[in-house]
Amino acid sequence: MDETALYDARIELVDYAIDTFWDAPRETFVSNLLSGEVRTPGEAVSPDLDEGFAGLERFVEANQGRDAEAVRDELATEYTRVFVGPRPPVLAHETYYREDRDFLGEGLAEVSASYAAAGWSPPEAYPEEDDHLAVELAFLRHLVDRQRRGDEETFGYERVFLDEHLLHWIDAFADDVLAETDEPFYRAGAKVVAGLVEFEDELVAQMV
Questions:
Q1: How far apart, in whole angstroms, are the C-alpha atoms of residue 98 and residue 94?
Q2: Any residues with CB less than 8 A from the CB of 90 and at least 6 apart, and which?
Q3: Is 61 a residue whose pLDDT tops 80?
Q4: Could you give the CA distance from residue 163 to residue 72 in angstroms, rounded to a whole number?
Q5: Nearest to 25 by CA among 81, 76, 85, 92
Q6: What is the mean pLDDT of residues 167-179?
Q7: Can you say how many angstroms the Cα of residue 92 is from the centroid of all Cα atoms in its chain?
Q8: What CATH number does residue 110 fall under?
Q9: Strands (E) located in 15-103
Q10: First to last CA, the chain
Q11: How far is 166 from 172, CA to CA, in rounded Å?
Q12: What does the pLDDT read at residue 121?
């Protein structure tokens, strides 16, 4: 895979993970999935990513020919049950998983400081706290996009952010999703997001 294709794949992967977990999926996202516009690799990448991609393909096959709005409504119902509640079984927040940080406490400032150090502020499209998975992934996307444009300094920012934040909790989050839902869409998403962070960890290790 050439460098341009690799950056495109990394951006697409992060975008998919954001679309899966930041809110109930939009109908356009579901339509793109069911129409085959969301591509998956044709070769093995890593165990988690491979399993996630296979699960996503099974989800698409099982819903072929169905109305995208109806599929979206089903996913929205499950998203609300699992991630919104009342009393959701899974909370997509770093500080919820950090034993060394209070939930939505002082750890939030540390996440925000990582963003500020790289000159980034969360977009208004994500109305969640800075430690929400979708916001952390949006920051990761920002760094990958800057790397694509030749800003090598951002590999260092990504190295620190992975070590101090995402790597501390993403596996536990993915395990909780797998334990709390039988919905293939979210089970695939859990595997993909865990594999994504592992992939980025290995890639950045070669650059820093």
A1: 6
A2: 82, 83, 173, 176, 177, 180
A3: yes
A4: 35
A5: 76
A6: 98
A7: 10
A8: 1.10.3480.10
A9: none
A10: 21
A11: 11
A12: 94
Give the span between the Cα atoms of 24 and 80, in whole angstroms.
7
> What one-character DSSP code corresponds to residue 80?
I
Question: Would you state the pLDDT for residue 101?
Answer: 83
Residue 132 three-state SS: strand
Percent residues over pLDDT 90 in the chain: 82
Domain count, the chain: 1
Q: How many CA atoms lie within 13 A of 114 on its CB side?
A: 26
DSSP H or E stretch at residue 105: none
- 97 pLDDT above the threshold of 70: yes
Q: How far, in Å, CA of 22 to CA of 18, rounded?
A: 6
At 93 the three-state DSSP class reads strand
Report the candidate in 98, 79, 73 with the shortest Cα–Cα distance to residue 164: 98
Whole-Å CA distances, 161 to 44, 97, 109: 27, 16, 14
Q: Which residue has the higher pLDDT, 41 or 56?
A: 56
Q: What is the pTM of this model?
A: 0.93
Burial of 43 per CB tally in 10 Å (0-12, 13-18, 19+): exposed
The pair of structure tokens assigned to 4 is: 């341009």
The domain containing residue 51 runs over which residues?
3-205
